[in-house]
Amino acid sequence: MPFARSERGLEVLSYRCCEDVLRDPGLAVGFEEMLEACGIGNGPAHASLSRNINNIEGEAHARQRRAIAPYFQPARVETMRQTLRRALEKRFVATRELGRCDIVDLVGRWLPTTSFCMMAEAPFEDRPFIWRMSDEVQRFFQMKTSERGVVERGFGELESYVDSLIAARRAEPGDDLISFLLAEERSSALSMTEVRDLVVILVLASTDTTNAQTACVFKALAQHPEQWRALRSDPTLIPNAVLEASRYEPGVWAMTRVAREPAEVTGVPLEAGTHLFVDFIAANRDPDVFPSPDELDVRRQMKRPPLNWSVGRHFCPGRPLAVLEMEETLRVALRQWETVELEGDLESHGAPYVISAERLPVRFEPAIV
Ligand code: HEM
Q1: How far apart are CA 138 and CA 356, in angstroms?
Q2: Site to substitute for ligand 1 among 316, 330, 356, most atoms within 8 A of C-beta
Q3: 3-class SS at 347?
Q4: How far apart are CA 215 and CA 35, in angstroms?
Q5: Cα(97) to centroid of ligand 1, in Å?
Q6: How are beta strands 274-279 and 337-342 bridged, if at all?
Q7: Does any ligand 1 atom lie closer than 6 A to the CB of residue 202?
Q8: Mean pLDDT over residues 30-49, rounded?
């Protein structure tokens, strides 16, 4: 069944219909509607999130995409691999004798915030703050009035933080993401408001999402010891395993779209005001695209990518970085751990929209290295 009605709107379930909806130029991403569902109808959080790259269309959106694209090219991201690998190795070695750890604590929160600090040349002491901001502001995805205070307070702190980063880079430019965006502003490719909004969204979009997806990848593999063994004996499968485990256990369960005018999508009429939930969690198990979808198979030959990073004009530009981070985490874990198993459930909040991982306790047998 490609669609289903639910209390919250129209659920888009099949892979093909999810793609059609995500690519449909007539449907809005709808951050305004999500913010309003949280009781946020105006103010700084509403203004910034409504005009950010993920929520706008047309020339302004295309211009911002062009402006950030060089910074997120796979070749540029690749330059971070060795540094992240060495840092991960030290971190894993430090917990080796314990035989157990919390994946969220060990890497989930630490790694994407480390990457952000490296990209922005921000102090590493800022990592816990960055993680907390991302977690708090992203709660607007939950569309609950109970989250209003957390979102607005978090946003205020985040914007002041971003302003201080921009001021520091303006005073002392470097070879970093913010200096790069400021250079775009000097060449009139971006306005100052766009630079500020982009830094805000890059903090928000890059950290909690990667934390959740990393925890989900480890959860999936820890539940399938035969897949862990296959990866240990053939580490060339790691890139495929990251995608397959992300397909099997996504961290972003659904993205929204809104029909602001009466519309039709793959033959289904939509009244104005219809909320659509593009359910990655269902599409990634569509048997027409992924045969035996309930099996985790790190050798799976995928003809289509899992939808976790979306498709179409809003496709996630941070995918190469997120994938690289997960590949390196898995590579180091596979070298250090002979076996891994869950010691408890994945603790998270935010489902059924974008999950935020809080804890994933695992037990492992250290490998002889
Ligand atoms: C596992 C980690 C990640 C996941 C699952 C993820 C997923 C997504 C999704 C689903 C979208 C929305 C697409 C839509 O509305 O159709 C998105 C947009 C975006 N993501 Fe990611 N993301 C991740 C990591 C990152 C990272 C590391 C960065 C940057 C460093 C990033 C930057 C962005 C930006 C800027 C957008 C807005 C793009 C646009 O609207 O044109 N993301 N991401």
Answers
A1: 9
A2: 316
A3: strand
A4: 27
A5: 36
A6: unpaired
A7: yes
A8: 95
Rounded to the nearest 5°, which phi and psi values hold at 6? Answer: -140, 175
Residue bearing the CA closest to ligand 1, atom 7: 309
Q: Does the beta carbon of 255 lie inside 6 Å of ligand 1? A: yes
254: its two tokens: 């659904």
Tens-digit pLDDT profile for residues 282-307? 999 999 999 999 999 999 999 999 99
Q: Which atom of ligand 1 is nearest to the CA of 322?
A: 27
Q: What is the CA 133 to chain-centroid distance, rounded?
A: 14
Q: What is the average per-residue pLDDT within 111-139?
A: 95
Q: Which atom of ligand 1 is nearest to the CA of 311?
A: 16
Q: In terms of DSSP bridges, do strands 361-366 and 337-342 run parallel, antiparallel, or are they unpaired? A: antiparallel
Residues forming beta bridges with residue 278, ordered by sequence position: 12, 255
User: Has residue 315 got a pLDDT over 80?
Assistant: yes
Residue pair 75/324 in contact (Cβ under 8 Å)? The answer is: no
Per-residue pLDDT band at 351 (split at 50, 70, 90): confident
| Three-state secondary-structure class, residue 5 | strand
Nearest residue CA, atom 35 of ligand 1?
202
pLDDT in tens, 17-37: 999 999 999 999 999 999 999
What is the band of 167 on the pLDDT scale with cuts at 50, 70, 90?
A: very high
**What is the pLDDT, as a whole number, of residue 300?**
98
What is the distance in angstroms between the CA of the first residue and the CA of the last residue of the chain? 49
Listing DSSP states for 213-272 in one string gives HHHHHHHHHHT-HHHHHHHHH-GGGHHHHHHHHHHHS-SB-EEEEEESS-EEETTEEE-T
**pLDDT tops 80 at residue 1:** no
252 CA distance to ligand 1 centroid (A)? 10
Q: How far apart are CA 19 and CA 100, in angstroms?
A: 40
Return the pLDDT at 368.
87
Q: Which residue has the tokens 């109970």?
A: 146
